[in-house]
Amino acid sequence: MSRQPEGPPPPPVVQRLRIRYAKRGRLRFTSHRDFARAFERALRRAGVPMAYSAGFSPHPKVSYAGASPTGVASEAEYLEIGLAKPVEPDVVRVQLDAALPGGLDIVEVVVAEPPSLGERINASIWRVELPGAVAVDVAAAVERFLALDEALVERLTKDGRRTVDARAVVVDARVSSGGAQGVSQPAETDTGGDCARMDLVVRHVTPTVRPEDVLAALRQAAALSTPVSPVVTRLAQGLLDTSPPADQSPADPLVRLLDPLRTSTTASA
Predict the structure, then answer these.
(1) How would you classify the pairing of strands 231-241 and 73-83?
(2) Dihedral sign, CA of 50, 95, 98, 110?
């Protein structure tokens, strides 16, 4: 007979909360594993009544949705937790934010409702700061890139080299000049001169195509020069909404994302 853990089974999940958090400043170098460890410590410090898995090594009921790569900042990371008893979401937000180090910030907490978090996210908006690059040159490279049928780039993974099509996932791309607006730019990348800003709307696919893959395609296929390491920030995640609002002007972005924490979220065709 197989061994069974002693004692009663863990309490069931009676409430699920969805959480939006941010990785800012130097904490952008936090890996997903590092964040997960810090978050579980914060749950214990904050006294959140977590539900746990059964078995000999119980784990708190935490599920993550597409964490950003190490070294990339984000204003829109998402996870879901299961609780053993109901708690007011804003209480959890305040307590968890106080228990986490500055730079790993809890932005919003809501009660989870169907559909699942995974069904509410199929794209990201990324902001890529390119210190030392001139906006007009970047815009020309982006125009050449968008005119391509495909842009194949190689990426080294734990399973070897994989080829991805960086063009197929880019829904929209806009270029402007100047520093980040509302996003803290690390001091070590401040060149004091030109800085182009590129905003990308990228579909989520398997294997994942990251901003670094799009940049590699821009360098290879569109001759983009990036003299200084780019600074990348995820601004949003959600479902693609390609239907423009009635008051949209021609200069507005073509694509918006539906907020995954809003209960009215529905997928667009």
Answers:
(1) parallel
(2) positive
Sequence-separated (6 or more) residues with CB below 8 Å from residue 79: 18, 19, 21, 39, 62, 63, 64, 65
pLDDT tens-digit readout, 8-38 = 778 899 999 999 999 999 999 999 999 999 9
| pLDDT for res 184 | 43
CB 42 within 8 A of CB 81: no
Q: Is the pLDDT assigned to residue 222 strictly greater than 80? A: yes
Structure tokens at 141: 């490279």
**Bridge partners of residue 125, in order along the sequence:** 201, 236
DSSP 75-86: EEEEEEEEESS-
- pTM of this structure: 0.87
* HSE-up of residue 252 (Cα within 13 Å, Cβ side): 11
Write down the domain spans for the chain. Answer: 15-112, 120-258
In the predicted structure, residue 191 carries a pLDDT above the cut 50: no
- At the topology level, CATH places domain 15-112 in Alpha-Beta Plaits (3.30.70)
Instruction: With CA atoms as reference, report the closest residue to 167 among 140, 147, 190.
Output: 147
